[in-house]
Design a protein that fits this description.
Shape: globular
Helix content: 40-55%
Largest sheet: 7 strands, mixed
Length: 607
């Protein structure tokens, strides 16, 4: 099948050399990104005959324009394709959609480094260890290291402003460097031992602790010796629980890819420094009718394009193309070993990962069935034509009319879709006017008539008959037809006794507390409330800090941020002396006097 006109003419000009091709529809939206060793041959293959794959047939029918980028090698094409897919997430590419990045453990760059779990872009000179497959694994490692080496986990502002040890010190999870109960040299030793443990050098730590324990016992410091003994026992206990084998590769990823009822699930199990640190189950999008090899290649390019691969990968599928394996090896500066038919302990690992993947698929199916039942129940209750695939809920939060914030949360297929959440700062209304705030929020959300975000099948309003009337009025003015449901608090605000007001029905409705559709309504309403309250608190705090600091002549955004960071917030600034403020970069003695005078209501000596 050949597209007529300019598209066929453009294809005729393509060279047979490595590159990346991109397909767009007639609206300019990116449909698909692909790589090829021979561009012309690869692109022509889509059009020369009709594919048996319905997904490919649909893709070809939508292609309006083609763009290509020529590269010097297939490895370079692989890297560019991976970056484009992660950036744009095209509709027809297999995407391992994961809203959250993998967490790390971070040791801050400080005289007394802070140990914390961290997610996001890595920023030297802080030191990072990981990634960990999930937050639970990172937090477990953090708690163990905190208990073992007594490292601080508080943020910089709290550390600077402590005047006495906190609860972490009392429960023996911190050595209290904030108030000088441990010296820099001894704390540095704890940091070095922490890094040794994270690098798999446990024996060095155990030898050092045993030597110190014997020294303390010889000096008759039996209490200190007992503490060191307990630390040795804790390390040995954790090593016994986490160590998976000896005499094998220290860093291993296990990739178990299974397909059940034409749906793929991949279990990623991570072993670092010979210890099992956790696993993660991933469900790819747009993988219908794809082969296992295509799904595996999509994961390898997207995951290892961002995170360095280990020296060995074990999988139940064959190794990818030599070019892909070479590209992954270049990322770590050594050849990656791919094992498809492992023996011994490696086989046990792979079998365990396959079991986890199959169990995850079964749980996923059960959850999906439960969500479908809730949506179908909601459809019957509200007398809708079909189950509401996309639902949006609005709520208003303020304190006596101050810092009003409206939240909009989105549920798709019965699950939160946090990328679509929105918060609206509401100004220019009578303070405390919830109806006016709701009207402004709805107008701002729907005035583009769904061009920036899809319109919902069902709109939920946290409120009763009055809020429902406001929503109906706004939608009529915008000529939008969306089903609307109001959720009013029950008598004495009792959970489970909420009243439902359905647009077009004159009387209220109540549902049994055990009704599945009612559970979904409550979940969406509670999430909208949580999101509105969090936004309101942030806005109120920002206003308070602005009114007291930024209105002082000479204090702009930069100086205000430096003061708040230095003293841990507005209360810390109020407690600080003029001399302390003067030491902050860009403040000086004269401005410090002015700040102190303003905050404490005294007359500036130079004013």
């Amino acid at each position: 099948m050949t597209k007529p006109g300019t598209l066929a003419d453009y294809r005729a000009t393509l060279p047979n050399q490595p590159g990346v091709y991109r397909y767009f529809d007639d609206q300019g939206k990116l449909l698909y990104v692909g790589k090829a060793r021979h561009l012309k041959r690869r692109v022509d293959s889509y059009f020369q005959r009709e594919s048996e794959n319905p997904r490919i047939r649909l893709l070809v029918s939508l292609i309006a324009t083609i763009e290509v980028t020529l590269v010097t090698s297939e490895t370079e094409a692989l890297l560019l394709e991976s970056n484009l897919i992660k950036t744009h997430r095209p509709r027809f590419n297999i995407v391992f959609r994961d809203d959250k990045t993998y967490p790390y453990l971070q040791l801050s760059s400080h005289e007394f480094p802070r140990l914390s779990w961290y997610r996001g872009k890595l920023h030297p000179p802080h030191r990072y260890y990981g990634p960990y497959p999930n937050v639970w694994a990172a937090r477990s490692a953090l708690q163990f290291l905190q208990k073992l080496f007594l490292l601080r986990t508080c943020d910089e502002s709290t550390f600077k402003n402590r005047t006495r040890p906190c609860l972490e010190y009392q429960i023996k999870r911190c050595s209290a460097p904030c108030v000088g109960l441990i010296g820099a040299g001894e704390y540095a030793l704890s940091i070095r031992q922490t890094e040794d443990f994270l690098k798999g050098k446990e024996q060095r730590i155990l030898d050092d602790l045993r030597t110190r324990m014997n020294q303390e016992a010889s000096a008759l410091n039996f209490e200190n010796a007992a503490l060191l003994r307990d630390r040795i026992a804790l390390i040995q206990q954790v090593l016994t629980q986490q160590t998976v084998s000896t005499g094998v590769a220290r860093d291993v990823d296990i990739l178990a890819l299974v397909c059940q009822e034409q749906e793929f699930v991949l279990n990623l199990t991570m072993i670092r420094q010979g210890r099992h640190i956790g696993d993660r189950n991933l469900f790819p999008d747009h993988a219908e009718s794809a082969s296992a090899a295509q799904v595996l290649e999509a994961f390898l390019t997207q995951h290892y394009g961002e995170y360095p691969p280990p020296a060995q990968i074990i999988s139940n599928h064959p190794a990818p193309s030599p070019e892909l394996l070479q590209w992954m090896s270049e990322g770590i500066g050594r050849r990656i070993s791919w094992v498809q038919a492992p023996r011994g302990m490696r086989r046990v690992w792979l079998e365990g990962a396959l079991t986890n993947a199959q169990q995850a698929w079964a749980q996923h199916q059960a959850q999906r069935l439960h969500e479908e039942q809730r949506l179908q129940t909601l459809q019957r209750v509200l007398e809708l034509d079909s189950p509401p695939t996309r639902m949006e809920c609005f709520d208003i939060s303020h304190t006596q009319g101050e810092a009003t914030v409206a939240s909009c949360v989105v549920f798709q297929h019965g699950r939160p879709h946090k990328q679509s959440y929105r918060q609206y700062h509401i100004d220019g209304i009578t303070p405390g006017d919830d109806y006016g705030a709701m009207r402004v929020a709805l107008e701002r959300r729907y005035r583009d008539r769904g061009e920036s975000l899809p319109l919902p099948d069902l709109l939920l309003i946290d409120g009763g008959k009055g809020q429902l009337a406001v929503a109906a009025e706004v939608l009529r003015a915008l000529d939008l037809r969306i089903a609307v449901l109001g959720i009013a608090k029950g008598p004495a605000r009792k959970v489970g006794a909420e009243t439902l007001w359905i647009q077009g029905h004159a009387t209220e409705r109540h549902l049994a507390p055990e009704n599945p559709g009612f559970h979904l309504i409550q979940a969406i309403r509670d999430e909208a409330h949580r999101f509105a309250v969090s936004g309101h608190r942030q806005r109120r705090q920002k206003r308070q800090e602005h009114s007291l600091l930024q209105d002082i002549p000479g204090i702009g955004d930069k100086r205000r941020r430096l003061l708040l960071q230095q003293f841990g917030g507005l209360k810390g600034v109020e407690r600080a002396s003029e001399a302390d403020m003067a030491e902050v970069s860009g403040i000086g003695e004269a401005l410090a006097r002015k700040i102190y005078a303003t905050l404490h209501g005294v007359k500036d000596r130079n004013g």
